[in-house]
Specification:
CATH topology of the largest domain: Multidrug-efflux Transporter Regulator, Chain: A, Domain 2
Radius of gyration: 19 Å
Strand content: 5-15%
Shape: elongated
CATH class of the largest domain: Mainly Alpha
Number of domains: 2
Largest sheet: 2 strands, antiparallel
Distance between the termini: 57 Å
Number of helices: 5
Length: 116
């Protein structure tokens, strides 16, 4: 299938698909005319990549661990090896720090208003 077809089937833009290819998380075959060619398995791969990105994983991490991704009845999951677990935990810790910082700022902003 062509990149436009893969984009339509996955809801991921052609631009994002080219970015995934540049980052090494998606590998496209080539037709004799040079067009990118994708298979049915690439649909699953793109959905895995999208799910991992939506969860906050950078493409550098996805590239290292994409083979740990599994798609089943409950969506995309990752088989956790110790290195991946450490990266996921570090991302979760950063998110929690950002959440706490935002909450603190919200409280400070509230203190500036009479209704605060």
């Amino acid at each position: 299938m062509l990149i436009s077809e893969l984009a339509a089937r996955t809801g991921v833009s052609a631009r994002a698909l080219r970015h995934y290819e540049e980052r090494g998380v998606l590998v496209a075959g080539r037709d004799p005319n040079g067009y990118r060619a994708y298979s049915e398995s690439d649909v699953v791969r793109v959905l895995q990549i999208k799910t991992m990105i939506d969860a906050g994983l950078p493409t550098s991490t996805i590239r290292r661990y994409i083979d740990c991704a599994r798609t089943g009845d409950h969506g995309v999951t990752l088989e956790m090896c110790p290195a991946l677990r450490a990266e996921v935990d570090a991302i979760a810790a950063r998110i929690e720090e950002q959440r706490a910082s935002l909450e603190e700022k919200r409280e400070r902003l509230g203190a500036l208003t009479p209704e605060g």
